[in-house]
User: What shape does this take?
Amino acid sequence: FHDQTPIRRVEEMRADFVANASHELRTPLAALSGFIDTLQGPAKDDPKARERFLGIMHTQAARMARLIDDLLSLSRVELSAHVRPDTMIDLLPIIRQVGDSLELLATERGVTIDMDLPEGTVFVAGDREELLRVFENLIENALKYGASGGRVKVTLTDAASTDGASEIRVAVRDFGPGIAPEHLPRLTERFYRVDVGDSRSQGGTGLGLSLVKHILNRHRGRLLIESVPNHGATFTAAFPQTKTAEPGV
Ligand SMILES: Nc1ncnc2c1ncn2[C@@H]1O[C@H](COP(=O)(O)OP(=O)(O)OP(=O)(O)O)[C@@H](O)[C@H]1O
Ligand SMILES: [Mg+2]
Assistant: This one.
């Protein structure tokens, strides 16, 4: 039923967004102010406490910086939403590069990253930096939230989508706790997290999947999310197959 005009809904979403963003920034800021007070007062002459508090302040400042970077990336992608990227990019080196860059995190979490990629090249029309963000977010989430499964699988396949057009799909699968069905439709909302405390303790801002979704939309692709609780989750980035001129045909 229509008891709200679309304009009013957009206004409300914007207000919600500003409120959420402010709250997320205020949390680390409050911690910073608190420690500054402590360092100026009670802990003034305690070098041990000073060392420890400065460490925490460093982490909180880094958190604020990351949040601002993520918000800026999100607004940049939104502004260019109607411009489809047109550079032909080979997905394979991008996926491998992200895998390598997350190897350290994987080792820390006791997870092996298992890449099942085809030989040769797989081109899509895309933006290199944005594609890196997509796979970084998906693989990092799998390592962080699915660590208990001990394994993350990245698979690239060609698939026929529902309308018969062909798609290139990159699936990131973990074998962790998975996600209850009621959360699935909300995961790509900005700041939405299943467990805010858990995400925060891992340095998360809840903007990752929102960014992934916007990037894929801009690439005329889509994000598919499937999960069976207790058996893990699969996040699939799907791209429209770009028709390439076959040499000599
Ligand atoms: N593979 C997964 N298994 C279980 N839960 C997941 C998985 N991936 C994401 N989630 C849930 O979805 C939430 C949103 O993910 P998203 O990537 O948007 O944010 P984040 O990881 O918390 O923060 P950021 O990506 O900014 O570091 C996570 O907080 C987590 O609750
Ligand atoms: Mg994330």
In short: Confidence is low (pLDDT under 50) at residues 245-249. The chain has two domains: 6-79, 87-240. The beta strands are 87-90, 112-116, 123-126, 151-160, 166-174, 222-228, 232-240.
